[in-house]
Design a protein that fits this description.
about 425 residues; alpha+beta; 8-stranded antiparallel beta sheet; 14 helices; 10 strands
């Protein structure tokens, strides 16, 4: 009963089922399953089933072959090589993979590929940013040799240092680690490679401006390299373009000054010392304000100076004093050594002249004027001239602030201001 009733129910449902097959876009033909469909409808239905069956068979046959023909699977790059390349170059993960893929996982070839890619992309981006203004940045200093005595014998050494201003568009990039490293390398390069060019037998001025064109053509030397003479892969100009490609801002060299004095050029009975200071930067040797200061010591004989500088306590105290003078130049609005009108200087002139400022950067001076304390220190250590004057003389300084007028970057010379000679 149940089976028979189920069959009848199924037949009734089937009898009411209608199938619609399109003849025309807007026309439907309805027929009952119990009646025979039209001949053309039977033919269309047969064709549809036949085409569907053939299509399924074709997909089953062609699918494996299609995978073999159109597979674009690339050679895998070992993660160990990616990590090694990133450690050497600090490039992004995707760029490291791209370089290794292009060079068949050869790390050395990948390094060369990255250099070429960075040079091309950096040059293109630098050309696009050429019209922008770059008024931010940092001033960096590098002192490779402070200098000692002149003449022959022990404790002889020359002076070698540099100061460079590197500009960018924003303070954010100026504090970037890559920007600071590039500035340190450029400053080191200027100090290391600049040659002594002066011809006078007794040097009057040691600080000398370095042309930007000459600096850009120098091979870039790393300030962290154990071998400073190791061949560089690119020059300063190329390194700047490469950084432009990484940070996306205009970067440019603004000015540079060097202090180079070989030991054989230092006069007898004299000692030249170079001090530096930078303020307002992440690194101690960089800041928004920086200065190089040259100090000259004169003794009655070379023996007097040699004995003085060979004393560790006195020598250490002298270097601290010279560093304090450099901090004084940076920390105060120092524009000259002496007031323009020494007979009746104004209060403003005395505040901007180094020798008449209160020596605030050296606690033992107890805020006495710089010139007065230097005279006392020289007399205490026997460094006085035959006229009884101090033989410890601040000789030259260059002080720069980021973004200031280039005219304000003139080198200040105590010798030229006071007409002094050695």
């Amino acid at each position: 009963m149940g089976v028979r009733g189920g069959r009848q129910t199924s037949q009734r449902i089937e009898s009411r089922t209608e199938i619609s097959i399109g003849r025309l876009p807007n026309q439907k033909v309805k027929y009952d399953r119990r009646s025979s469909p039209p001949a053309d409808t039977q033919l269309n239905t047969h064709l549809v089933h036949t085409m569907f069956r053939l299509s399924s068979q074709r997909r089953a046959v062609l699918r494996p072959r299609a995978i073999r023909l159109y597979s674009t699977e690339q050679q895998k790059v070992p993660i160990k090589l990616v990590a090694e390349l990133r450690k050497l170059t600090e490039v992004s993960l995707s760029k490291a993979r791209e370089a290794l893929t292009a060079t068949n996982n050869d790390v050395q070839a990948a390094l060369e590929w990255l250099d070429k890619d960075a040079a091309i992309s950096g040059a293109k981006k630098a050309a696009k940013l050429e019209g922008r203004e770059a008024k931010q940045g940092l001033v960096g200093v590098s002192v490779l040799s402070r200098g000692t005595l002149g003449g022959e014998g022990p404790a002889r050494g020359g002076v070698r240092g540099a100061m460079v201003e590197l500009n960018c568009e924003t303070d954010f990039v100026a504090r970037n680690e890559l920007f600071g490293k590039l500035l340190a390398d450029i400053t080191h390069t200027a100090a290391f490679l600049t040659e002594y060019k002066k011809q006078q037998s007794v040097p009057v001025d040691v600080l000398d401006p370095l042309s930007i064109e000459e600096l850009q053509e120098m091979p870039l030397l790393s300030h962290q390299a154990t071998d400073p003479l190791r061949a560089s892969t690119h020059n300063v100009a190329d390194a700047i373009k490469e950084l432009v490609g990484k940070v996306g801002e205009k970067i440019s060299l603004r000015r540079a000054v060097t202090a180079v004095l070989p030991a054989e050029r230092i006069p007898e009975r004299s000692a030249y010392h170079l001090a530096s200071c930078a303020h307002g930067g992440v690194q101690a040797s960089q800041g928004r304000v920086a200065a190089l200061l040259l100090v000259v010591l004169r003794g009655s004989t070379s023996k007097v100076l040699s004995e003085l500088l060979s004393n560790d306590i006195v020598s250490k105290d002298l270097f601290q004093l010279e560093d304090a003078l450099a901090r004084q130049v940076v920390g105060f609005p120092t524009l000259s050594f002496s007031p323009p009108n020494s007979d009746s200087p104004s209060e403003e002139d005395m505040e901007t002249a180094l020798l008449t400022q209160s020596f605030m950067m050296y606690p033992p001076a107890q805020s006495r004027p710089v010139m007065l304390y230097l005279q006392e220190w020289a007399k205490t250590h026997g460094l006085v001239t035959s006229e009884g004057e101090s033989a410890l003389i601040p000789w030259e300084f260059a002080k720069w602030t980021v973004g200031e007028n280039v005219e304000d970057s003139l080198i200040r010379s105590n010798a030229k201001e006071a007409g002094k000679t050695l």
